[in-house]
Every structure is written in C-alpha cells, then in structure tokens.
C-alpha cells in the first residue's frame, strides 16, 4: 500500500486538488474551513483504476504551519507537488521542495494548478513551467512530470492520476523489517471506542490484539481495532495509512511524535548521530553547539548540535553531527530528518539518522569515531551489527537486533559472519557453535560480546576481585551478589543469566574461581601472619581437646580475632550452629550422625539425652538441636525432637 503527500505554497490549491481527486474534503478543522486554509494535516484516499487505494496526506503550505507539514510528510512514497500556474514558484514552493529533497522522497508529480486562471496566456504558462523545471533540477523530483490541471474545471485530472499511478508503480513497496513502527501524527478519542491514533505504518505489520508500547513514554497498550481508509482491517501492512484503536492508554498519554512499536523493539534516545547536509541557500552556517529544531517522523524536538568533523558547516556542506535532544524521541537508523532554526523560522538542512543510540557524547575530530559512523552509514549489515554490539555489550540477541536497526532477516547472516570471524563472542553456557545458524537458535541468546569488550570485562573482574582480596585478605572472596552489582552498569543492570554466563566464561578462561555463594580470583589464597597462624593453631587445638564443649564464639574471638574467625567459618574449618556455638567439622558430623542413628532407632530424642550422649552442657545440646530444626532435619514436639522425613 502506498501513501502520497501534497506539498507546495499556501493557497496554490492543494486541498482543492485533493478534494477533486478523492471526493474527500481534507480540511477537517472548523477553523480551516472558516479561513479557507489548511492548518493541520488532512487525510484522504484515492481509488486507482486497478482497484487499489492510495493514502493521501494533505499538508499545510503556510509558513506558520510548517511543523504540521513535517509531521505528515515522513513516510510518504511520492509527492504531489503543487504549484499554482498564476503565481509560479513562491517561497514555500522552494522550502517544501528542499524538505522533500532532504527527506529523499522517492518520486513525485508536479500539479501545475489553476491553469484556468492563465488560459489566455500560453507564454506565461510556458514561463512558469520552465521556472518549475529549473527549481526541480538537482532534487529528488528532477524527473517528476509537470501536469497542468484545473481542480475547478477538472482539466488534466485524469492525466495527473495516471502520472501518479506510474510513479507509484515504480516506487518499491515499503520493506517489512519485522518490527512495525507507527509514528503518531494524530491522537484523539472516539465515543464508545476510546483512544485512536493515526499515522503511516512502516517496517512491519500491525494486527488487532497485539500488545504495543508507546515510545518514548513507555505506556503499554493493546490494539483493539485497525482501520485503513475508513475500512476495518485485521492486519495493517507497511506503508499504509492506519488508524489504531488502543485500549490501555488515554488520548493524553499518546501524542503526535510518539511512536507505537512492539514492546522491546524501539527505545527512547536523547542523543543521535546524524549525517547532515546543509541547504545551499541556508541563511548562514551551522555552528557547534547551536540550538536547532529536530524533526523526524512526526516528532519535533529542540536540540543542540555537536559538530564532529568540522568547526562549522557552511551552506551546501555535509558532515557528521551529534544532536543532543532536550527530550527523548524514538527514531531508527536510516530515518530522514530535517533541521530548522526557530527564528526566523527557516529550514537549514537535514539528512539521515545513522546511529540512534550512541549512548554517549563523542569527542570531536576523532578518527575512530568518524570511522565508526562511516561503518554505520555504509549499511553493511556485519559492520552495522558489530558497531551495535560494541555499543550495547554485553547484550542479548533481541536487543542487539532492535538497536542495530537492521532488517531481522539480515541479522542472522551478519551474526554468523561475525561469529565465524571471531568478531562476536557468545558467552551463553549452552551455546554450541555449529555451522547451521537459524533464527530460532540465536533468538534467545543473552550474553553477546565483542572480543575487545570481553578482554576489558575480564580485566575489570580481575581488578575488582584483586582489590577486594587486598582489602579483605582473610575472606575467601566476594559474595556473588556483590560482584554482580559492582560489575554491571548501573544504567543497565544485568540479568542473572548474563551474570552467570559471564562468571562461567571467566572461570573457563582461568580468571575466576566460582565457590557458589562466593567468587574469588583463580589464584586467591588466604595468607595468615605468623601470629595469626599461632593463634589459629591454639584455637583449633582447643576445639580438638573438647570437641563437644569447644570454645564459644566469644572465646574464639578473643583468641584469633574477628577476621581469622570469620575466615575459619567461611572456609568450613569451623561449623557455626548458632551465634554462640561453633563446632569443628568432625565433631559436628559425629554428633549429627549419632543423633540421626538414635532418631532412626528410637523415633525421638530430648535435649537432655543429647547432652548426656556427648557429655556436654545443655547450651551446646540445645543450640545443635535448634540448628537441626532450622535445617528442617528435625521437628520439635513438646520436649522432644522427631525426624521431619521430608514434610
Ligand atoms: P491550499 O492552501 O494549497 O490547500 O489551497 P486551497 O485548495 O485552499 O485553494 C486556495 C484557493 O484557490 C481557494 O480559494 C480555491 O478555491 C482556489 N483554487 C484551487 N484550485 C483552483 C483551480 O484549479 N482553479 C481556480 N480558479 N481556483 C482554484
């Protein structure tokens, strides 16, 4: 399905022409009717001779409403460029043409309207035609046929429609990248239905019942109904004008400039890297750090420029710019945009979004930054995927795919190419590298890294733990949870699975040792000083001398101190059964064994029996039995303990 958009100077007859072609009045606001001028976007559709319908977006021509024009013009397949024969080329004729060219609209037709007004003056008509042809030179409309028409008297309309049909036939269908996006150009509510948004769908299909996300706000909603050209449909195709009835969000929660997308496929951003071309007749050069207005899709947001490869961009020049936006937008790699200055209101240039998620401010004039951007601009899927990997890592396949902006079917081959060349590492522990890559095999991968990123991460892990061991030489290692929270980025917490994959890979690489709840460097060993060693020997001797009534925690602490005591417990050289009571492992095991034997034979045991069994005091016997209760080995019934037997 295709969409055309009107463009041209105010009062040159755009709305009248759309009405004559489609029978639909695109001027929908009362104010527009009263002022006879298009203020906001109008929508209609044209039935072609083959039976198909083509969406028509009618945009305002007046300079005051250029923002509305820009909201509607994104995503069109062809322009219906309107110039009035009596007035010829006017300021907004030029500005709209420049915008169409910056947006790289694939084709178009020029309607030379109001020819009835210049009927008696063929020379004038010829002059205007030549003027228009000159204006189109070197633009995306250079091959557009110029068709004289009169909307009022119907002259030339058939020729115009055939010319449009021919142009549209030549424009390829919008690709299906498997992740639909609907830049919202209108949001309203309909009694009995609720929230309805409209836009031109791109990059995928949208179906009723699907869950969608409003980006950047993040609201989740469900598609309750779909219409295209006022007809109910179950599935909307890329490139069509769509009205979406949403449940779960209010009209106020979705605004022009927001984008509907499937959850987790599009992310808000406040930094974008763009390749930008200045208009040859821009009023002045573009400065570093200049305030500008950024228009992309249906979004409009204030921004500041960061010129990456030039001190200034002169009119007509091109260059790399990082835009810092004042509020988040949802854009994708390859989106065309327009830059304007606020006052006086003028279009200054535009171009293509090359990297929607740079994630950080680039230093200026850096060859490696410019190289990265060139790689992204090249569009080579493997290079694009590699850049996305370096930016996002460690990352999942799903996020990598979404942030790369690549068509889904291009990702798997690019992934294979990188993996084979060793430029992409899969840390997932169940991953078996094999020659056959299928979308299903890769879809759930969670832990992808570049070799450089993995090197850096290994160093970071080793440094973190080495520092920890230095600080706590008697501790075995860092608690697992602590390591996870220290190694992950605060902005992007890791999933447990990713962390575990990283640990397993680091263990395999010989960097770490995994002790379950504790992680240490592979080489970490506890070293005691001579005094600590002597104290520890004294303590352990005392434990051996009185295995069933050994020194208490408090007594132990006075002998060896807190660090050594904690280390003895952590390393399993002492078994803690309560805050006060600790046993040596052989004593502990012997006691548990004898109690179990007794329970199996007799069915029950009292604390007093335990005390007598080991010739110890009630304090030790009670602590041990409460410990066994807590471990769910035994259960207390009155004064006795019985076996729990797995209940
Ligand atoms: P827009 O601002 O470009 O949408 O222009 P409109 O469609 O609102 O038309 C502006 C004025 O030109 C209106 O008064 C129309 O009636 C008039 N107009 C539009 N098309 C024609 C035409 O083919 N012939 C004549 N004589 N007048 C026209």
Walkthrough of the structure:
Helices cover 35% and strands 26% of the residues. It has 647 residues and is of the alpha+beta class. The protein has a six-stranded mixed β-sheet, with helices on both faces. A six-stranded antiparallel barrel has the order 7-8-14-11-10-15. The protein has a six-stranded antiparallel barrel with strand order 16-21-19-18-22-23. Strand 32 (634-637) and strand 33 form a beta hairpin. Helix 19 (607-614) packs across helix 20. The longest helix is centred in the last third of the chain and has 21 residues, at 451-471. The protein is elongated, with a radius of gyration of 36 Å. The two termini are 65 Å apart. The mean pLDDT is 91. Bound molecules: guanosine-5'-diphosphate (GDP). Guanosine-5'-diphosphate (GDP) binds next to helix 1.
Q: What composes the largest sheet? A: 6 strands, mixed
Strand content: 25-35%
Gross morphology is elongated
Q: What bound compounds does this protein have?
A: guanosine-5'-diphosphate
The largest beta-sheet arranges its strands as 2-3-1-4-5-6
Helix/strand-derived category reads alpha+beta
Work out the number of β strands. Answer: 33
Overall residue-averaged pLDDT value: 91
Instruction: Provide the gyration radius in Å.
Output: 36 Å
């Amino acid at each position: 399905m295709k969409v055309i958009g009107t463009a041209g100077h105010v009062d040159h007859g755009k709305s009248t022409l759309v009405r004559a072609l489609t029978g639909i009045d695109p001027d929908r606001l009362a104010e527009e009717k009263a002022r006879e001028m298009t203020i906001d976007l109008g929508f209609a559709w044209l039935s072609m001779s083959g039976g198909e319908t083509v969406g028509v977006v009618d945009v305002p021509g007046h300079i005051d409403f250029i923002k509305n024009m820009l909201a509607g013009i994104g995503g069109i397949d062809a322009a219906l460029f309107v110039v009035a024969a009596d007035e010829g080329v006017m300021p907004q004729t030029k500005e709209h043409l420049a915008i169409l060219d910056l947006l790289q609209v694939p084709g178009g037709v020029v309607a030379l309207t109001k020819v009835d007004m210049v009927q008696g003056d063929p020379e004038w008509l010829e002059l205007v035609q030549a003027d228009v042809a000159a204006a189109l030179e070197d633009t995306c409309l250079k091959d557009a046929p110029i068709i004289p028409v009169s909307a009022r008297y119907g002259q030339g309309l058939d020729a115009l429609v055939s010319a449009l049909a021919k142009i549209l036939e030549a424009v390829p269908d919008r690709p299906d990248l498997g992740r639909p996006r609907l830049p919202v150009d209108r949001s309203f509510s309909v009694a009995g239905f609720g929230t309805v948004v409209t836009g031109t769908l791109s990059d995928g299909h949208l179906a009723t019942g699907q869950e969608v996300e409003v980006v950047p706000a993040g609201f989740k909603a469900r598609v309750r109904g779909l219409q295209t050209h006022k007809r109910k449909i179950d599935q909307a195709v890329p490139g069509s004008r769509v009205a979406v009835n949403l449940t779960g969000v209010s009209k106020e929660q979705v605004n022009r400039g927001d984008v509907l997308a499937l959850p987790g496929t599009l992310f808000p951003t406040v930094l974008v890297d763009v390749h930008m071309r200045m208009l040859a007749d821009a009023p002045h050069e573009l400065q570093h750090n200049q305030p500008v207005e950024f228009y992309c899709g249906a979004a409009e947001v204030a921004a500041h420029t960061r010129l990456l490869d030039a001190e200034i961009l002169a009119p007509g020049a091109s260059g790399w710019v990082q835009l810092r936006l004042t509020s988040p937008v949802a854009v994708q790699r390859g989106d065309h945009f327009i830059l304007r200055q606020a006052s006086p209101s003028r279009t200054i240039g535009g171009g293509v979004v090359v990297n929607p998620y740079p994630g950080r401010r680039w230093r200026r004039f850096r060859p490696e930054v410019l190289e990265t951007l060139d790689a992204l601009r090249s569009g080579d899927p493997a290079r694009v995927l590699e850049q996305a990997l370096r930016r996002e890592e460690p990352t999942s396949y799903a996020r990598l795919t979404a942030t790369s902006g690549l068509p889904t079917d291009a990702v798997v081959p690019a992934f294979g190419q990188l993996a084979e060349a060793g430029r992409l590492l899969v840390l997932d522990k169940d991953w078996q590298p094999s020659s056959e890559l299928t979308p299903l095999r890769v879809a759930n991968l969670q832990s992808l890294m570049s070799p450089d990123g993995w090197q850096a991460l290994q160093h970071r892990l080793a440094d973190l733990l080495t520092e920890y061991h230095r600080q706590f030489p008697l501790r075995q290692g860092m608690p697992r949870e602590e390591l996870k929270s220290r190694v992950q980025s605060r902005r992007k917490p890791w999933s447990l699975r990713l962390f575990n994959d990283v640990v397993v890979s680091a263990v395999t690489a010989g960097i770490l040792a995994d002790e379950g709840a504790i992680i240490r460097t592979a080489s970490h060993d506890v070293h005691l000083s001579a005094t600590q060693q002597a104290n520890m020997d004294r303590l352990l001797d005392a434990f051996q001398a009185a295995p069933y009534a050994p020194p208490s925690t408090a007594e132990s602490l006075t002998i060896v101190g807190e660090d050594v005591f904690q280390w003895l417990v952590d390393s399993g050289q002492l078994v803690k059964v309560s805050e006060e009571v600790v046993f040596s492992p052989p004593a502990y095991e012997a006691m548990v064994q004898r109690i179990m034997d007794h329970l199996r034979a007799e069915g029950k045991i009292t604390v007093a029996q335990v005390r007598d069994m080991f010739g110890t005091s009630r304090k030790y016997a009670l602590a041990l039995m409460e410990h066994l209760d807590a471990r769910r080995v035994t259960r207390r019934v009155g004064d006795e303990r019985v076996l729990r037997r797995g209940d």
